[in-house]
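Sync notes, pocket subgroup
Present: LS, DG
LS reminded everyone that the earlier model was apo-only. Rerun requested with iron/sulfur cluster included. Inputs:
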Amino acid sequence: MTKSTNAHYYAPGHSGCPGCGPSNCMIQVTDAIGKDAIIVNATGCIEINSSLYPNSAWRLPYIHVLFENTASVAAGVSAALKAKGNNHTKVVVTAGDGATYDIGFGAVSGMFERNDDVLYICYDNELYANTGVQRSGATPYGAATTTSFVGKEVRGKQTQKKPIVEIAAMHRIPYAASASIAYPQDLKMKIEKALKHEGAKFITVNSPCCLGAGFDGSISIKVARLAVQSRLWFLFEYENDEFKLNFNPEQKLPVKEYLSLQKRFAHLNEKEIALIQKQADLNYGRIKKLCGIK
Amino acid sequence: MIKTIEGSRAIAEQAVYCEPEVVACYPITPSTHIAEELAKYYANGAIKKFIAVEAEFSAISALIGASAAGARTFSTTSGQGLLLMHEPLLAASGMRLPIVMVVANRAVSSPLNIWNDEQDTITQRDAGWIQLYAKNNQEAVDLVPIAFKVAEQAMLPAMVCLDGFILTHAVEQIDIIGKEDVKKFLPEFNPEIKLDPENPVSLGVYAGPAHYQDFRKDLEEGMQEAKKIISKEGENFGELFGKHYNLILAHKCEDAERIIVGIGSLVDNAIEVANELREKGEKVGVFHVRTFRPFPREEIRKELEGKIVGVIERDISLGASPPIYSEVSEAMQGTQTIISSFVGGLGGKTITRPIIRNAFEKLKQKNPVREWIS
Ligand SMILES: Cc1ncc(C[n+]2csc(CCOP(=O)(O)OP(=O)(O)O)c2C)c(N)n1
Ligand code: SF4
């Protein structure tokens, strides 16, 4: 484990659920980044939990503007710092998967293409938590949300997650990676690596939402770890035009173990679970190929 | 220095002399020449940062970030581009960020139309931005440094609006104030609160029912306060450069019986018509609502009380009274002023001098009318 300090830059007192994955992500991310940074946050659970006037959980300079424009706001902050001759302060986006995969996607792509000097962190809880658990482009196949309902005809989300890291990497930005709150050393290493590059950097961090996914907040880290071990989330990175797998889930852990912990998958029958297992194995094959593993 | 130059290029040049540190633009007719010219200045090192964004939504969003980080910021857009900015426009004013933007007025879709009217900026009248309307290119150019100075004192964003094509694409003699002279008028931008790791603050926070309204009330008070700042800085500008500006322009209104009220380039045409009619002994005047936000209610009341007034506007509020007419009418409440409404010139139709002459003629009837013209 990385050493925790008493004075986190994401301070206690925010109103996240006990065991909130995204809040844990904010602590890990900001502690790894340090003092000389500016946070640009999208509308979402973190923003609502951390900035209720007159309080703030942020010990770093912080700006929230809207749901879908963090990438552009950050581009502007970065440009202003450069215009003023400040080449040291880091500009860091923290945005949910809804803000990143969906509504802010165009702005994110624009930021990548321009290679703005910004570290973009997506805390991916695989749903819109803030508005009461709706599906996003990051919601996995089969998951029940309030807009991917389990009914007689349609049973949960019928499509897969966007491969956001590959999409980011294909913009040829200097660094893109996928991480998890259950692997703090890996996350820290990725943040440090990313920050060595000038230009656009992207890290998506699997950060389970206990409330939205339906499990007890005491097992958030376990859920996150199982996602990686069962090949439903991969720890990999893209740098210097190459992909690298940071953790190889060679030992196959059945997806069932991960799925069975969460209410959002409670409706799944054996056939559906088998399909998810197949998707996981296919994705593993795809990622291995991408990362040049035989 | 006086130059024979296209309106757009003069505006870009004057903006550059105001030394914005971050510029972000996206092309849209008829503001494109301004954006292109700024990109050229950037390529030649006259602007520190030019962000060639992927959409207007990102242009204004980037400037929100840059302004919050303490930079002087500038952009330009038109019509659909301004409409795409709607959500961040309100965020910018709510956060009290003095971004300056030149809007080359254009009609709104649908149907698609690239030509001029003022529907685009009028639809954004409640966004919390100062809105200044130029009646000619010289005024548009002068209003750029004035807008920066006012915005940065009032801590409010400001739009300088000018008619697309009619002004942006007109080549004429324009006096541009040089960089060194601009410095005498416009000090460096140094906001008290900004994003700074040495002094971390949280901006754009979430406010509940206990506090939210106070922020909005504060914003409204800031807008009201901006009237004084506009008057003062218009005067300061006049003292330095010999070109005087006020919230409004009342042309021969004092002894006038009939007055045409308008915004934008039709005002210059109306002034020409009024001057002709004056020569024939008719007591007519023209009133330019140069500042539409904050709305110069008191000035309007003072100049228009007891007159016969016709508001000509090139915008509509669908299903309601025309916006400028309805606001002028509200300002004149409780007075004997007779107010008529003329709407026209949409999507590039011109408000010609004969049309204006006709409107002055209509006012002789003394009964208020509501008409489409042109
Ligand atoms: C333009 C716009 N549409 C919708 C919303 C409502 N809204 C606020 S946050 C949110 C979902 C956020 O989801 P995500 O980005 O995944 O973050 P999370 O809440 O999970 O932390 C939505 C739909 C909004 N604020 N703005
Ligand atoms: S709803 Fe989910 S994301 Fe929001 S605070 Fe709770 S656990 Fe965190």
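DG: Strands of chain A lie at 37-41, 62-64, 90-96, 118-124, 175-180, 200-206, 236-239, 242-245.
LS: Chain A touches chain B at residues 35-38, 40, 47-48, 51-54, 56, 58-66, 68-69, 71-84, 89, 106-107, 109-110, 113-114, 116 (CB under 8 Å).
Action: DG to write up.
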